[in-house]
Specification:
301 residues; 2 helices; elongated; nine-stranded mixed β-sheet
């Protein structure tokens, strides 16, 4: 009896770790894992604030799962990569990212850069979801800002180009096909190449929108119907004769300079142009008036 009881106890001791391991595995399978690497160091934690060794970068998780804020305080190091659904990068002190590949790469639904400090990166910024530069100063040097979701700029940005890709989003939560490039009234944008938006849905009436800002040289936004379902919206010269590929500056200050007019928006569609409609209306009015005058002349005779 004692021997049988002893065997049962031993068996229970041996089996317990197996069940514990299975339980941990089952729990882990149900719990999503996130990552944010700054210069190669993993800083993600859902429960506590984590900092890098230099204490120039720290991460705090948000109240909702998959969200959080990365604070850069004089950070100088390698690239930032993340799969967080919603990440805010708060630049409180001037920081630099030096990398040979993408400087900032996010596969989440939203990435926001804000703060009072300047952020300078040596390579491109690429995001799968919405990219927002809310405040501060962002310099991408001779590289690009590329997004598969809406791009919103409300601060100072310097880059080679800003482009919205029509490629399918890697994250199912991002609304890439409904994306736009929105440049707000407080924005100050300088590109050495161009600004282009490709989108794949008719729900996006305008691929690029300038809000109370003007361009130098004076420019227009022209939506071009592309092949299949893809449309392209590009910044063109003011007369619409050619796309601007040699650099552009956009800010509210250019609206007050002599010779700088507010950017307009044109649609390259088969619908009658507004000016054409006015022309035909005036022509019809003149013709009807002439007929009426002629009839009155005949009546007097």
């Amino acid at each position: 009896m004692k021997k049988s009881l002893g065997l049962k106890i031993c068996a229970s001791i041996l089996v317990a770790p197996i069940f514990a391991s299975f339980a941990r595995g089952a729990f882990a399978a149900d719990t999503p894992t996130y990552s944010i690497k700054v210069g190669g160091s993993e800083l993600y934690s859902a429960t506590e604030k984590k900092e890098n060794i230099e204490e120039t970068a720290s991460f705090e998780a948000g109240t909702k799962e998959g969200t959080g804020t990365l604070t850069l305080n004089g950070y100088a190091g390698g690239s930032i990569t993340t799969d967080l659904t919603d990440l805010t990068i708060n630049v409180v002190k001037d920081s630099t990212i030096t990398s040979t590949t993408k400087s900032i790469y996010s596969t989440g639904s939203a990435l926001t850069i804000m703060g009072t400090g300047k952020l300078e990166v040596s390579n491109s910024i690429e995001v799968s979801g919405t990219f927002t530069q809310e405040s501060g100063e962002l310099t991408v040097k001779d590289n690009d800002i590329v997004s598969k979701g809406t791009i919103k700029i409300n601060g100072k940005v310097t880059a080679r180009s800003i482009s919205l890709s029509a490629a399918a989003p890697t994250n199912s939560n991002s609304a890439a096909t409904y994306g736009k490039i929105l440049i707000g009234e407080k924005a100050n944008v300088t590109v050495s190449k161009d600004i282009t938006a490709n989108y794949t849905t008719t729900a996006t009436a305008k691929g690029i929108e300038l809000t109370k800002v003007c361009a130098s040289p004076a420019a227009s936004i022209i939506n071009i119907a592309g092949t299949g379902t893809i449309k392209t919206s590009t910044v063109f010269s003011a007369d619409g004769s050619k796309a601007i590929t040699g650099g552009l500056k956009i800010a509210s200050s250019y609206c007050t300079e002599a010779g700088k007019s507010s950017s307009t928006t044109k649609d390259d569609t088969k619908n009658p142009d507004t000016l054409d409609a006015v022309y035909y209306y005036v022509a019809a009015l003149v013709a009807s008036s002439a007929i009426l005058i002629y009839r009155r002349h005949l009546a007097k005779r």
